[in-house]
Design brief:
alpha/beta, globular, seven-stranded antiparallel sheet, 461 residues, 30% helix, seven-stranded mixed sheet
């Protein structure tokens, strides 16, 4: 029997922490997990899940419009914000209950308290001292508070956006990443006059340039104002529900609400990392090796707190690799290569692998296959939105390096494309695959001739 109170102590009840605790407890280990707020972490409580529910809600106005082309007469619709928030809260409570039940059924001990490190084996959990052989830090991240912005105290972040007392008539969102873009589409779809302000030249900086440009144009066509190469310099409160936003360009914007979505930072402040000797990086992230080990040999870190890839499935994968390595005798390094992802904008984006620009920096010859068309569902509705599909192919080996989709159900397609690219399939494998007709996805296997080629970083028609 170990001299420690627990074989494993997990700090943080998000997706990665819960998965590690549940699996370890299921293997008969003495496991405890501490969470000071609610189980489920960013994803379930204030991220992916409520965000996707709000995306669905914001899409209905377009569905109502499109229905007319298919013979439906829809009465004048009305929207009740409080009903959406109440129903969202009910679903989150249900999911949190499932997380708790899974831990309890596996035999893990749950602490509803803040846990901090006292030394490499000792923790203070709500005033109680406990010891553990192994410790996992999975405390996630939080929105960048942007304390340097005068008037930041008048702004909200993505966390608060889910629980506003009422929808504002207008909103200014600063940021150009997927959180800012998704919320811009959500608020606009719910009838809020929306302006997006981004310091870069184009939104969604890490995505393929074609997708970025096309999404930008489509969002503006819907009525979302996008101001690139500009930043907020001051937010001034003038009255109840009345803010004046000052921009670097000299322009001003009036808004009922201002949301900051300018990145996230690891949630490591006040965690006692120094006392345990755990090193941190420039923004508070915890550096780890390929097995998620910190510089302290009995302490691991998983998920957003490491600032590697901030996605829920990645945190879960890292947790499963920990279990395989430490408790099943099967050393398994985390695989962060070729991760499929989606942006639930409107239209949504699904992408996996390298963008054209990234591939051009790594491969001498590329073949680019690109199709832009109006999806069949829009033909009777009269909606003019285009769908975009793009394959980036290595000109030497014919391996598909990147697959990028913008349009209805793009996220669903990205998951399946992720399997194909992970398996290192070639364009010839795509070409041999029979199409499903009529479907938008059939374009992925019927683009037989490249739209253009790229040689040594330069486009060749």
């Amino acid at each position: 029997m170990s001299d420690f109170d627990y074989d494993l102590f997990v700090i943080g009840g998000g997706s990665g922490g819960v998965r590690a605790a549940r699996l370890a407890a299921g293997l008969g280990k003495r496991v405890a997990i501490a969470e000071e707020y609610r189980f489920g972490g960013t994803c379930v409580i204030r991220g992916c899940v409520p965000k996707k529910l709000f995306v669905y809600a914001s899409q209905f106005p377009e569905h109502f419009e499109d229905a007319a082309g298919y013979g439906w007469t829809v009465p004048e619709p009305t929207f009740d914000w409080k009903t959406l928030v109440t129903n969202k809260d009910r679903e989150i409570a249900r999911l949190e209950g499932l997380y708790r039940k899974g831990l309890e059924n596996a035999g893990a001990e749950i602490f509803e308290a803040r846990a901090t490190l006292v030394d490499r084996h000792t923790l203070d959990v709500g005033g109680k001292r406990v010891t553990a052989d192994r410790i996992i830090i999975a405390v996630g991240g939080r929105p960048n508070p942007h304390l340097a912005l005068p008037g930041h105290e008048h702004c909200i972040f993505s966390n608060e956006a889910f629980d506003l007392e009422a929808l504002p008539a207008s909103i200014v969102i600063e940021g150009g990443g997927y959180i800012a873009v998704e919320f811009a589409n959500i608020f606009h779809g719910l009838g809020v006059d929306t302006t997006l302000v981004y310091r870069g030249k184009e939104i969604l900086s890490r995505f393929d340039q074609d997708l970025r440009r096309e999404l930008h144009a489509t969002m503006e066509a819907k009525g979302i104002r996008i101001l690139c190469q500009d930043v907020l310099t001051r937010v001034e409160k003038r009255g109840e529900g009345d803010l004046l936003v000052h921009l670097k360009s000299g322009a001003t914007l009036e808004a009922g609400q201002v949301m900051l979505a300018i990145g996230r930072i690891p949630n490591t402040e006040g965690l006692g990392l120094e006392a345990a000797g755990v090193e941190t990086g420039k923004i508070g992230e915890i550096p780890v090796d390929g097995f998620s080990r910190t510089n302290v040999d009995n302490i691991w870190a998983l998920g957003d707190v490491t600032n590697r890839v901030q996605l829920t499935p990645v945190a879960i994968h890292e947790a499963m690799c920990f279990i395989e390595t430490e408790y099943k005798g099967n050393p398994t390094e985390v695989d962060h290569d070729t991760i499929a992802t989606a942006v639930f904008s409107q239209p949504e984006i699904g992408t996996v692998g390298l963008s054209e620009d990234e591939a051009a920096q790594r491969f001498g010859r590329l073949e680019i296959y690109r199709a832009s068309f109006r999806p069949m569902r829009h033909t009777l509705s009269g909606r003019q939105e285009k769908m975009l599909m793009k394959l980036v192919v290595d000109g030497e080996t014919r391996r598909v390096l990147g697959a990028h989709v913008m349009g209805p159900d793009a996220g669903e397609m990205a998951q399946v494309l992720g399997i194909s690219l992970k398996a290192r399939l070639t364009k010839d494998d795509f070409d041999r695959t029979m199409a499903v007709h009529p479907s938008a996805a059939e374009e992925l296997v019927t683009m037989y001739q490249p739209t253009y080629r790229v040689e040594n970083g330069k486009r060749v028609e």
